[in-house]
Specification:
Immunoglobulin-like, 5 helices, five-stranded mixed sheet, four-stranded mixed sheet, 6 domains, mainly beta
């Protein structure tokens, strides 16, 4: 963005009514009616009195309040009011100047409507007497142009033009006066301007003729040039005028007075009539008045007078601090706004002049913004580096304007800029992977684990919802996730024996557009419960014919202690202690003859077999796991004490009478 190279200039007469058209500003800055809503045309003026405004159609520059050229600019010509026009998308600044043209709305006026002049009758013809200046605040042809005097054979009028261009009327004595013939003369002085129609003002001049006084007063200077600082305290001596008179007595006593002084200066200075000391009577202000002019009259006791001009220049001191006006352009600021974007316009004014009125602006503190000068009195506040709402959601920026005076004066203005959120952060899980441990046989709907993700963004951009996003094969039907809370629930009862662990992926997604998301893995470990009793593989119950024993073993009667009779084989589908099996002999025909290994399940003879032992033995072993509570199963084993299978068959035949043939028996080694 940049400021336009050339100013847009308008000219209007003063005293236009409110709402009067100044110029087609929108057209002159190059905006079409279609662009107006998006370009947001605005005006910025550093003047406290807003003389201009944009019309309701936001296209034409119009008068906002009464404009009095004389009140705004005084005698300065041309009278120019400046303002800035600001547009956006893209940002640009146009400098606008409005020249206020004078109209003839003021008639010339004299400071004194009655002027009294004393002339000694011995005054020689050709003597000149300054008359009070007429004043017309208008400029150009509308200002005071000439003076006219009523015809009189004794007096004429001469208009002298001073170096600064002002016209000063002087009364010229054409013929000798004779007090004895006429003691008083009455004249009318008329000041006329060059307006259309012509305006005028009058002053009455009364001339008193006095007796002779040989020597008039003489000032030490014809023109006193004085320079005063505007901060000169009241009652301070500003300067002194001095006149001398060659006469003696009362004719040499000089009395000083202002014979011609502007109303604006009359209340600022006092003249001591005896000493000629001029003192400050009111506050001097360079910004209100830079130059004053007066005429001092010195009159002796005999009525003779002399006149001297006084030119007073007021020197500026640094007594005005700069003033700032802030115009936010972009507030709040989206955090993804690119650097170099203009967010505000700052207009600076300092009523002082020279270095006292030159102002530098800077930002207090280290912020991601910088100031860039657009014109002499305008700065742009620009984004200097990337913004991040998650680090700083608002900036309270203080802008200091400091002039170059000595000592310098400064002022500050604060501007709060808020940063609006954009969806630039994806949700972040508290953990990359979650582990959950759930005992099997859980109820459907039981909570498994809660996942949490945080999003640094605000509003909908930071509102997180949760979804399942896949997982290990077959894991999807096992769990569900609540969208708002992230709670993971079991969809069904888990069975450790079917599935010992599974994993699912949970996606956290924010509410931005476009949405951002991240995933985390939830690994569920199913814990075993003791829900399976041991299962005996051997001896198998009912393995033989219906009338035969489930299992039998033949033990020779010559077997010694420790002889391996059989081994009970059992398994448990559970895990850990729930599948840790122990064996115990709970029933036997001869309890002291056999024993079973606690952990091996091996059935052995506890002593040597004797002839007294019965040929048929029945053993019942119990198999228990170590769960809480423990589950168990039993195994029944039939033992035949015989030296060989043929010897054992008769014993078995008795039990199997009417049954299947021995060939169908199952034998286990």
């Amino acid at each position: 963005c940049r400021a336009a190279a050339e100013r847009i200039r308008y000219a209007i007469p003063e005293e236009l009514g409110r709402g009067s058209l100044v110029g087609p500003l929108a057209r002159d800055v190059g905006l079409s009616p279609v662009e107006l809503p998006t370009r947001k045309l605005r005006i910025v003026s550093g003047d406290e009195k807003q003389y201009f405004t944009l019309g309701e159609d936001n296209t034409n520059l119009r008068v906002n309040r009464r404009i009095d050229r004389e009140g705004i600019c005084g005698a300065v010509s041309p009278c120019v009011l400046s303002l800035e026009a600001v547009v956006e998308n893209p940002f640009n600044i146009f400098h606008v100047s409005v020249t206020i043209q004078d109209i003839n709305d003021n008639a010339p006026q004299f400071d004194r409507e009655f002027v009294a002049i004393e002339m000694i009758e011995s005054t020689p013809p050709g003597a000149r007497f300054p008359l009070g200046n007429g004043r017309d605040p208008d400029t150009g042809l509308n200002s005071l142009q000439n003076y006219q005097l009523t015809p009189n054979p004794l007096f004429s009028l001469v208009v002298r033009e001073s170096p600064d261009g002002t016209k000063q009327p002087e009364l010229v004595l054409e013929k000798s006066l004779d007090r004895e013939k006429q003691r008083n003369h009455h004249l009318i002085l008329t000041a006329v301007d060059g307006g259309d129609p012509v305006r005028s003002g009058t002053a009455q001049i009364k001339i008193n003729v006095t007796d002779a006084n040989d020597n008039p007063p003489v000032f030490t200077k014809d023109i006193y040039k004085v320079r005063l600082l505007e901060n000169l305290p009241e009652s301070s001596l500003a300067f002194q005028v001095k006149a001398t008179d060659g006469d003696e007595g009362t004719n040499a006593e000089i009395t000083y007075s202002f014979s011609d002084i502007a109303n604006s200066a009359h209340h600022l200075f006092t003249l001591d009539s005896r000493t000629g000391d001029v003192k400050v009577a009111g506050p001097l202000d360079y910004e209100e008045g830079k130059y004053y002019e007066a005429t001092v009259e010195g009159k002796d006791g005999g009525g003779l007078s002399a006149h001297a001009k006084v030119h007073i220049d007021i020197l500026d001191v640094n007594d005005n601090a700069p003033t700032l006006s802030l115009l936010p352009i972009l507030n709040p600021i989206p955090e993804d706004t690119v650097p170099s974007t203009v967010v505000a316009v700052i207009n600076v004014r300092d009523r002082d002049s020279g270095d006292n009125g030159k102002v530098n602006c800077n930002i207090d503190g280290d912020w991601p913004f910088r100031l860039e000068s657009s014109s002499e009195n305008t700065y742009k506040l620009i984004i200097a580096s990337a913004l991040d709402r998650e680090k700083d959601s608002a900036y309270n920026i203080t802008i200091t304007a400091r002039d170059r005076g000595s000592p310098s004066l400064s002022s500050r203005a604060s501007l709060v800029l808020e940063v609006s959120d954009v969806n630039d952060n994806a949700p972040v899980f508290e953990e990359a992977a979650y582990s959950a441990y759930v005992a099997e046989n859980n109820a459907a709907g039981a909570p498994v684990v809660r996942v949490r993700a945080r999003d640094a963004d605000a509003g909908a951009n930071g509102r997180v919802s949760y979804w399942l996003a896949g997982g290990s094969a077959g894991a999807a039907p096992y769990v569900s996730v609540e969208a708002r809370s992230g709670a993971v629930y079991a969809q069904r009862s888990f069975d450790y024996e079917q599935c010992r662990e599974f994993a699912v992926a949970v996606r956290a997604q924010d509410g931005g557009a476009p949405a951002r998301s991240s995933t985390a893995t939830v690994r569920v470990f199913v814990l075993d419960r003791n829900d399976n009793a041991p299962r005996v593989l051997w001896p198998a119950a009912g393995a033989g014919a219906a009338s035969l024993p489930a299992a039998f073993e033949v033990v020779p009667r010559s077997a010694e202690a420790g002889y391996l009779v059989a081994k009970v084989v059992a398994v448990d589908a559970d895990a850990g202690r729930n599948a840790w099996l122990s064996y115990e002999l709970v029933q036997a025909s001869e309890p002291a003859l056999f024993r079973v290994g606690l952990h091996s399940g091996e059935v052995r003879t506890a002593r040597a077999v004797s002839e007294r032992d019965a040929a048929k033995q029945r053993l019942v072993a119990v198999v228990k796991d170590h769960g809480q509570p423990a589950l168990s199963a039993t195994a029944t084993l039939h033992v035949v004490l015989a030296e060989s299978l043929q010897e054992a068959l008769p014993e078995l035949s008795e039990r199997a009478a009417g049954g299947d043939s021995p060939a169908e028996l199952q034998f286990y080694l």
